[in-house]
């Protein structure tokens, strides 16, 4: 997936400067974009047809509508990816509670979800790195996080911290969210 994403970041008729650093940069960028996409899938509709932040809603709508134009313009995938990255901070801000989902209209949010899925999965053929590496890893981590959560509820902070620290030593970062959930990522 990293190599595919690396190639999609350049126009198909442009030469590629292939290097380890470029691949590592593509992997980090892909992880950030995919994380925003996963966050977008979990965002519920705000129940408002009209946006409370008209400027933000219009800006996002323009980025979303440009994607088809870019695709029709000689398969310009780098511009599409750039627009996806422009939208990602808004998604993450909604997830983190920094802005309300009502700031963008439900129609724009639905279009956002549709375009992210269409371009990332259906057209570009991208999949999450964890899915391509090992699906079992996610299942095992979810089990460990459940055990850690139970330990925290029983005020067994030594066990909870031990699980977090051991996973951190193995390159798996555990993050306790404000809403009480726990997320993880591979460093």
Gist?
The protein has 8 helices and 2 strands.
Q: How many β-strands, per DSSP?
A: 2
Shape: flat
Low-confidence stretches: none
CATH fold name of the largest domain: Isoleucyl-tRNA Synthetase, Domain 1
SSE order: HHHHHHHHEE
Q: What is the percent of helical residues?
A: 55-70%
* Radius of gyration, whole Å: 19 Å
Give the strand content.
5-15%
For the biggest β-sheet, the strand order reads 1-2
> What is the name of the CATH architecture of the largest domain?
Orthogonal Bundle
Please tell me about this protein's structure.
It is built from eight helices and two strands; from the N terminus they run H-H-H-H-H-H-H-H-E-E. It is mostly helical and 187 residues long. The chain has two domains: 131 residues, Isoleucyl-tRNA Synthetase, Domain 1; 52 residues, no CATH class. The chain has a two-stranded antiparallel sheet. A hairpin with a 5-residue loop joins strand 1 and strand 2. Helix 1 crosses helix 2 and helix 2 packs across helix 4.
Supply database-style keywords.
187 residues; mainly alpha; 2 domains; 65% helix
Task: Give the arrangement of secondary structure elements.
Layout: H1 2-8, H2 20-41, H3 54-72, H4 77-95, H5 106-123, H6 129-133, H7 135-153, H8 157-169, E1 172-176, E2 182-186
Antiparallel strand pairs: 1-2
Helix pairs in contact: 1-2, 2-4, 3-4, 3-5, 7-8
């Amino acid at each position: 997936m990293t190599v595919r994403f690396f190639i999609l970041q350049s126009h198909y008729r442009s030469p590629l400067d292939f290097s380890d650093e470029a691949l590592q940069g593509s992997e980090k960028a892909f992880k950030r974009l995919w994380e925003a996409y996963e966050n977008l899938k979990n965002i519920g509709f705000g129940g408002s047809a009209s946006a409370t932040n008209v400027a933000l809603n219009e800006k996002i709508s323009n980025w979303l509508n440009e994607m088809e134009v870019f695709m029709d313009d000689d398969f310009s995938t780098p511009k599409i990816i750039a627009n996806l990255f422009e939208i990602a901070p808004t998604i993450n801000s909604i997830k983190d509670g920094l802005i309300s989902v009502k700031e963008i209209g439900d129609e724009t949010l639905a279009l956002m979800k549709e375009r992210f899925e269409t371009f990332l999965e259906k057209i570009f053929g991208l999949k999450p790195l964890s899915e391509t590496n090992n699906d079992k890893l996610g299942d095992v981590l979810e089990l460990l996080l459940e055990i850690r959560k139970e330990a925290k509820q029983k005020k067994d902070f030594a066990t909870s911290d031990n699980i977090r620290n051991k996973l951190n030593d193995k390159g798996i970062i555990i993050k306790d969210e404000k809403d009480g959930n726990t997320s993880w990522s591979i460093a």
